[in-house]
Automatic annotation (TrEMBL):
Native species: Sesamum radiatum (Black benniseed)
Domain Cobalamin-independent methionine synthase MetE N-terminal residues, every copy: 56-270
Active site (UniProt): H656
Binding-site list for 5-methyltetrahydropteroyltri-L-glutamate: K18, N90, R476, C477, W522
Record function comment: Catalyzes the transfer of a methyl group from 5-methyltetrahydrofolate to homocysteine resulting in methionine formation.
Protein name per UniProt: 5-methyltetrahydropteroyltriglutamate--homocysteine S-methyltransferase
InterPro entries in the cross-refs: Cbl-indep_Met_Synth_N, Cobalamin-indep_Met_synthase, Met_Synth_C/arc, UROD/MetE-like_sf
Catalytic reaction list: 5-methyltetrahydropteroyltri-L-glutamate + L-homocysteine = tetrahydropteroyltri-L-glutamate + L-methionine
Length: 720
């Protein structure tokens, strides 16, 4: 019982489950074929765990695939359920909706079936369930049989994930944990129960509640992001209970400092006893890449500094063996050499970049003129109608487009052929937007693989993987770049494509950039300096790009900060410091442009209401923001009297669903916005970029969006 993994990536080392899901959604394969891919993947993961010597590991309704996927994606007649971020990660979850008369019933045997699957393969696993109180606290109001079945199937341990325990909980919420586990106690009799927490420190009141829960055998803590919890363990951990010590980082890809972790573990062993200490990951490995073995082209020095999910399993087991007196000296020695190499490598440090970032601290980098004066200057230049229409940036990435990029990367086509193909695609996207009569255009980003990777590939201090995929939501995976050193911009990154696109139209063409905070939060970030220092370095690189775009005649520049809210610490006491440097980083990027240059930003899928004043403080000219899938929660801020003077475009339809909204539905949404926002600041746009959709969905949805904007312009004009 010496080692444990909180969770493991589901998509497969080569995204096998992603492709199986999308094939099923497109009607090209059956439910049985999808199930087989998922079953085979689970079997290979269990075997890998078992072979590595892990003693506990992860496994994961009768509602059926049709209902299950309609809840997540929507269908022709029903919108998708609300989706938001899982704590401060880039993984998303569907928000459960609970009405006052809801009756809970056992609808899915997934956990039991998968436990039995593993058992049939000779692997004894620990089923993982979201804990009852976390489930309730993450649900929203809408307009215990599984334990018995798992016990009957032979499970000896069950893991309940209760990450809400790391939040700032009220006393009545903590009381809910005590009541819930007291209620479960008779069902749990005869089982070993692990309650797992992660992503931050557990506050003292929550620690006391947690470690006093009835019928619980062991407690899991994130000792990477929650190092302060160590003090509580040393002073208050109950005797006779198992401690699952999360010393191997489940959120990043750096190799563990095994010697340092062993020191921590030995100190804990003295507190809880040798037989009660279990070495674990800090959280599920779902948030990291799958296996370094799939990265043959990665620079060998940088590769020696890394550990993906498969390597973290080996680290956990190596630490457990060392604790048991079976230390693998060669493995520990090789790990120590890699740690030393990373600390001393000249490729990590750039003194000029460090100096430029340090010099930023003397100013708040605000634009010289206030936003209302800037909007007036911009309107004189752009001459836009009221309720101007735009899109967020990307257009559908077709199979043909992906083929062109792939062939160029593999040097199968020349640079000249590549540029010709991409320009043809841009021209097609420009013409489509002009035909639809959209006011401010985008070039569609056909040259880009991913909104962060594309920029990282052109900045120094970044490394890239071939198969370092991480699940974001549904079948959507991202491949975060690795920031290993100081960041700078060797040459312009987007100017060529933006100016080419602007030359194809007389309408304003947005220059499209990803902001520094989003590049930071959607990368695997170096852990040898504070995150804000890395963010300031990225901000300086983006600032150079913004100024080059302006010089090239681009008058509307969008700097996306999709992940600004995601990086917000989970505890309120830490919010102000993060928001200060994150908002400052954004302002650095555009503080030097003229009043007539319109700066847009975009944010997606998160709860923004608690940080609206920081969003205002970003001082962007226009912000587009997700709205349609969260019951227009964003609008409640403005109903409560928050004054917003810049341009704002709350999304009018959900692009993560294949459903096409009608003109009337979109007009109704815009009317709700007009009830709380001034007509002269409101923009009309989708929720997010259109990259993952098909043209057969995009064209009618945008037609309806433009028609709705025109309908309301006519109504507003006649009302005057």
């Amino acid at each position: 019982m010496a080692s444990h993994i909180v969770g493991y990536p589901r998509m497969g080392p080569k995204r096998e489950l992603k492709f199986a899901l999308e094939s099923f959604w497109d009607g090209k394969s059956s439910a049985e074929e999808l199930e087989k891919v998922a079953t085979d993947l689970r079997a290979s993961i269990w075997k890998q765990m078992s072979d590595a010597g892990i003693k506990y590991n992860w496994t994961g309704g009768e509602i059926g695939f049709s209902t299950y996927f309609s809840m997540a994606r929507g269908n022709a007649s029903v919108p998708a359920m609300e989706m938001t971020k899982w704590f401060d990660t880039n993984y998303h979850f569907i928000v459960p909706e609970l009405g006052p008369d809801v009756k809970f019933s056992y609808a899915s045997h997934k956990a039991v079936n998968e436990y039995k699957e593993a058992k049939a393969l000779g692997v004894d696993t620990v089923p993982v369930l979201v804990g009852p109180v976390t489930y309730l606290l993450l649900s929203k109001p809408a307009k215990g049989e599984v334990i018995a079945e798992l016990k009957a199937a032979g499970a000896s341990w069950i893991q309940f994930d209760e990450p809400t325990l790391v939040l700032d909980l009220e006393s009545h919420q903590l009381e809910a944990f005590t009541k819930a586990y007291a209620e479960l106690q008779s069902s749990l009799s005869g089982l070993n129960v692990l309650v797992e927490t992660y992503f931050a420190d557990v506050p003292a009141p929550a620690f006391k509640t947690l470690t006093s829960l009835s019928g619980v055998t062991g407690f899991g803590f994130d000792l990477v992001r929650g190092a302060k919890t160590l003090d509580l363990i040393k002073s208050e951990f109950p005797s006779g209970k198992y401690l699952f010590a999360g010393v191997v980082d489940g959120r990043n890809i750096w190799a563990n400092d095994l010697d340092a972790s062993l020191v921590t573990l030995k100190s804990l062993e003295g507190i809880v006893g040798k037989d009660k200490l279990v070495v674990s990951t800090s959280c599920s490995l779902l948030h990291t890449a799958v296996d370094l073995v799939n990265e043959p082209k990665l620079d060998s020095e940088i590769k020696s500094w890394l550990a993906f999910a498969a390597q973290k399993v080996v680290e956990v087991n190596a630490l457990a063996k060392a604790l048991a007196g079976q230390k693998d000296e060669a493995f520990f020695s090789s790990n120590a050499a890699a740690q030393a190499s990373r600390k001393s490598s000249p490729r990590v440090t750039n003194e000029a970049v460090q100096k430029a970032a340090a010099a930023l601290k003397g100013s708040d980098h605000r634009r010289a003129t206030n936003v209302s004066a800037r909007l007036d200057a911009q309107q004189k230049k752009l001459n836009l109608p009221i309720l101007p229409t735009t899109t967020i940036g990307s257009f559908p990435q077709t199979i043909e487009l992906r083929r062109v990029r792939r062939e160029y990367k593999a040097k199968k086509i020349s640079e000249e052929e590549y540029i010709k193909s991409i320009k043809e695609e841009i021209n097609k996207v420009v013409k489509l937007q002009e035909d639809l009569d959209i006011d401010v255009l985008v070039h569609g980003e056909p040259e880009r693989n991913d909104m962060v990777e594309y920029f990282g590939e052109q900045l120094s201090g970044f490394a890239f993987t071939a198969n370092g995929w991480v699940q974001s939501y549904g079948s959507r995976c991202v491949k975060p770049p690795i920031i290993y050193g100081d960041v700078s911009r060797p040459k312009p990154m987007t100017v060529f494509w933006s100016t080419a696109a602007q030359s194809m139209t007389k309408r304003p063409m947005k220059g499209m950039l990803t902001g520094p905070v989003t590049i930071l939060n959607w990368s695997f970030v170096r852990n040898d300096q504070p995150r804000f220092e890395t963010c300031y370095q990225i901000a300086l690189a983006i600032k150079e790009e913004v100024e080059d775009l302006e010089k090239a005649g681009i008058t509307v520049i969008q700097i996306d900060e999709a992940a600004l809210r995601e990086g917000l610490p989970l505890r309120k006491a830490e919010h102000a410091f993060y928001l200060d440097w994150a908002v400052h980083s954004f302002r650095i990027t555009n503080c030097g442009v003229h009043d007539t240059t319109q700066i847009h930003t975009h944010m997606c899928y998160s709860n923004f209401n608690d940080i609206i004043h920081s969003i205002i403080n970003m001082d962007a000219d226009v912000i587009t923001i997700e709205n349609s899938r969260s019951d227009e929660k964003l609008l409640s801020v403005f109903r409560e009297g928050v004054k917003y003077g810049a341009g704002i475009g709350p999304g009018v339809y959900d692009i993560h669903s294949p459903r096409i909204p009608s003109t009337e539905e979109i007009a109704d949404r815009i009317n709700k916005m007009l009830a709380v926002l001034e007509t002269n600041i409101l923009w009309v746009n989708p929720d997010c970029g259109l990259k993952t959709r098909k043209y057969t969905e995009v064209k009618p949805a945008l037609e309806n969006m433009v028609a709705a904007a025109k309908l309301l312009r006519t109504q507003l004009a006649s009302a005057k």
